[in-house]
Design brief:
single chain, alpha/beta, Rossmann fold, 2 domains, eight-stranded mixed β-sheet, 9 helices
Length: 282
């Protein structure tokens, strides 16, 4: 199978967590024998036509840095999609893909155009929604424009993927999409053996990598902190509820460790040797 993946960020161009998600998924699919082509943006100067990156062919378009303000950003996204759609059409002539897979609304227009041109299925992973980011306040521009784009994307795609059951229900309710059209697939992690308990004989050690953020009703770091009496390792210091999680850990029987940064150094690699790793999303 040959898959065309469209996203607005891919390492080393990183704006958030989506880049890492797409990179990990693309590499995993490639390892399973799927031929993956990623079409994305690059730096402002110079384009990249199909460089292989760890088994994945990456096609980059030279685009200026996105504006910080939301309204110019929406215009910038429209230009990006025009460029991606044209590049996708050229790639389709050369490669004839079996599936088009895009991530979030930012590349929905170009992905839709590529899928329709190829007459192939269009799969969308919905990582987040404007409705969720703004607690339902999407009635005024520019939030309303993004919400409309997401709704059209969700309703027109052949199938949707979310990274948790919570997001599956959210997408179904907000966009009026049948749950049978949505598959919840949790994010994967890469573990390096050996794995050994850290808390000592008879006690389990748990590691919770991720950002300590408030995500509405979705379970977060507070859930394992309240539930376990073992050593809990919260990796990373980013997120606006990080201090709250640290305070909570002091009021429970959990012995928590919160390293200040996540890196592959010996200081933090031990977090991956824990016996269990609870995930923030369900």
């Amino acid at each position: 199978m040959r898959v065309l993946v469209l996203c607005w960020e891919y390492p080393p161009v990183i704006a958030g967590g989506l880049a890492r998600h797409v990179e990990g998924l693309s590499r995993a699919l490639s390892a399973e024998g799927v031929e993956v082509h990623v079409l994305t943006r690059g730096q402002a100067h110079g384009e990249d036509s199909g460089t292989s990156r760890r088994g994945v062919r990456v096609h980059r378009l030279a685009l200026p840095e996105p504006p910080a303000r939301i309204e110019p950003f929406i215009d910038w996204v429209a230009v990006m999609n025009e460029r991606l759609a044209a590049a996708g059409a050229a790639l389709a002539e050369d490669w004839g893909f079996d599936l088009v897979h895009s991530h979030d609304w930012l590349v929905a227009d170009s992905a839709r155009a590529c899928a329709r041109r190829l007459e192939r299925p269009w799969v969308v992973t919905v990582h987040a929604t404007e409705h969720g980011r703004h607690q339902g306040w999407v009635h005024r521009h520019p939030q309303s424009a993004i919400h409309r784009a997401e709704r059209a994307m969700a309703r027109e795609a052949d199938h949707l993927i979310t990274c948790s059951r919570y997001m599956r229900d959210h997408v179904a309710d907000v966009f009026g999409v049948g749950r049978q059209r949505i598959t919840a697939l949790r994010n994967g992690i890469e573990l390096e053996p050996p794995r050994a308990a850290l808390a000592g004989p008879g006690r389990a050690a748990l590691a919770g990598p991720g950002r300590a953020t408030l995500a509405g009703p979705a379970p977060g770091f507070s859930t394992p902190l309240k539930a376990c009496s073992s050593r809990y390792v919260g990796v990373g210091s980013t997120g606006h509820s990080w201090k709250s999680c640290r305070r909570l850990s002091k009021t429970t029987s959990t012995r928590s460790v919160w390293p200040t940064h996540w890196s592959p150094s010996p200081r933090t690699r031990w977090a991956w040797t824990s016996m269990t790793q609870p995930r923030p999303s369900r």
